[in-house]
Design a protein that fits this description.
By secondary structure, this protein is an alpha/beta fold. The chain contains 18 helices and 15 strands.
Length: about 525
């Protein structure tokens, strides 16, 4: 009997480790496959090894528990597996409770079946098909119904692009201001220096703009938005335009529009990061962070201090801890790669084509410099980094310069197309850079400054079309009305801001729900 106990102990240890490794590896394989990322790479091997280390570390803790403790940990393992592979909190809780209840009630262990289940899922995932990070859907009926004889339209929404007059007064920003003005004026645009958005978050800003300020999306959230049917896109289709939508997975325009083609790029995909010159250890850290951020248990349940740090940073308190989900963002990397696909489509534009493209540029993370060369992962910055505001502004300026070069690439591609000679181009942001000390929102009334307001709401608006006189206009106007008036003119004349208008914007709560109106700083409006 004495010899049997160590053997039984070793078997329990092996089964426990196998269950942990199998479920973590199955989750990792699903994550890698979903991201269209190669499996046979050193960084994947290192993350897989980390999963083994975690399993070996937790197993002695598990074996040292009584039945209730073991049942709890087995339930936690089941919940974690569902958590890493699903967005459903209900399913996660149900799986955890079910495993814990069965093992405690029957006084048994389910680690053996869980190990077998994880192994089956792992093999099936590795041999199965993998989705592409960039997907296209065609509607031939919409394409055939389009009218010819109309000038092509490129409508480009650049996420988190501050307006020319919204740039701060420091020397680098003032040089950037001159570069922005020169860039658009030399390319024949009418540029509105004091254009502004009436909302500070994409989920409200974009629906407001495309509905000319008259309504928002029905179900915006902090994880994304279904934009729904919009006046602007419906009007283009009614006029006989053949609509191509180029969108990120954060904002869904297509479900509410009669498009001929809908292209969606996965802004969080790892696949585009292969274009970046990252070291194996940098890639390992990035992949481990992105993998861990899938789990609400890891990102929230086991790190409540990080959640508190994020809230405190929103309130202007500098905190050194960053949420894993923030560190793991790669949306800019995916967007930079996606612009190549958009450029290819624009080079084939025909009469009657209308393109609406939403690009997460120059949106954080700031991953490139002025020449679009990728930075080291450790040098990536985010708008809520604990680093000083001046450093974040510098990082933003570098990415904004890169954004200009990408816009130039798109304009040149359109110029090469069959419809490039007299094409109409609309380029605007959705809100400002949001490089603030304190975010201007409803809970922060009385705490944010005028500079915070301008950083939140000042945004780009530029148009180019036959008959539109290039120039620089400084009168303030919301971009929703600028787009409305330009569209109503048949894209033939530049809108003129109304001088007597009250310039109010909307403050949101921490969940990005609109709560109240607030005036823009009077000094900025002059």
């Amino acid at each position: 009997m004495d010899k049997a106990k160590p053997a039984l102990r070793r078997k329990e240890f092996a089964v426990a480790v196998a269950a942990g490794v199998a479920l973590l590896w199955a989750s990792l394989a699903n994550f890698i496959t979903h991201n269209d990322y190669p499996v046979l790479r050193p960084e994947i091997g290192l993350v897989a090894l980390l999963c083994v280390v975690i399993a070996f570390m937790v197993t002695p803790i598990y074996l040292g528990q009584r039945q209730w403790g073991r049942s709890f940990l087995e339930g936690l393992l089941g919940a974690l597996f569902v958590d890493l592979n699903s967005n459903s909190v209900a399913a996660m809780v149900a799986a955890g409770v079910a495993v814990a209840a069965i093992t405690y009630w029957k006084r048994i262990s389910l680690l053996g079946p869980l190990a077998l289940f994880g192994t089956v899922i792992l093999v099936a995932t590795l041999v199965g098909s993998r989705p592409s990070w960039l997907r296209s859907v065609h509607k031939p009926s919409a394409e055939q119904a389009a009218s010819n004889g109309k000038p092509a339209i490129l409508h480009l929404i650049l996420d988190e692009h501050i307006g020319v007059e919204g740039l701060p007064a420091d020397e680098e920003s003032q040089h950037l201001k001159q570069d922005l003005k020169a860039f658009y004026l030399r390319r024949g645009f009418a540029l509105y220096g004091r254009a502004y958005s009436q909302h500070m978050h994409t989920v409200n800003a974009i629906p407001a703009v495309l509905n000319y300020g008259e309504r928002l999306a029905e179900q915006p959230s902090t994880t994304g938005v279904v934009v729904g049917q919009t006046q602007h896109l419906r009007k283009l289709v009614d006029q006989g335009y053949r609509l191509t939508i180029f969108q990120s997975d954060f904002a869904d325009f297509c479900s509410g529009a009669a498009f001929a083609e809908c292209v969606t790029y996965d802004s969080s995909s790892l696949r585009p990061t292969l274009d970046f010159n990252l070291s194996p250890m940098e890639r390992t850290r990035l992949i481990a962070l992105k993998f861990a951020s899938l789990s609400q248990i890891i990102a929230k349940g086991l790190a409540p201090w990080n959640v508190a740090a994020a809230i405190l940073r929103q309130r202007g308190v500098p905190m050194p801890v960053v949420l894993p989900t923030e560190d793991a963002r790669t949306s800019t990397v995916g967007t930079l790669r996606a612009t190549e696909e958009l450029s290819s489509r624009l080079s084939k534009a025909r009469s009657g084509d209308a393109f609406l493209a939403h690009l997460l540029l120059p949106h954080y993370p700031y991953v490139v410099g002025p020449g679009c060369a990728g930075l080291r992962f450790t040098d990536w910055k985010r708008r809520w980094d604990p680093s000083p505001l001046e450093i974040r502004r510098h990082a933003y300026a570098g990415q904004l310069h890169c954004t200009m070069s990408k816009v130039d690439q798109l304009l040149k591609a359109l110029a090469r197309s069959p419809a490039g000679l007299n094409a109409i181009v609309i380029i605007h942001g959705d809100h400002g850079s949001r490089l603030t000390t304190v975010d201007p929102n409803e809970p922060n009334r009385g705490r944010f400054t005028d500079d915070d307001m301008i950083a939140g709401y000042s945004t780009l608006f530029a148009i180019r079309a036959p008959g539109v006189q290039p120039g620089y206009l400084t009168s303030p106007q919301p971009i929703s009305l600028l787009l409305r008036d330009f569209t109503r003119s048949g894209f033939t004349s530049a809108p003129r801001p109304a001088p007597s208008q009250a310039h109010l914007v909307t403050l949101d709560d921490f969940d990005w729900k609109p709560r109240g109106a607030y005036p823009l700083p009077p000094a900025w409006l002059k």
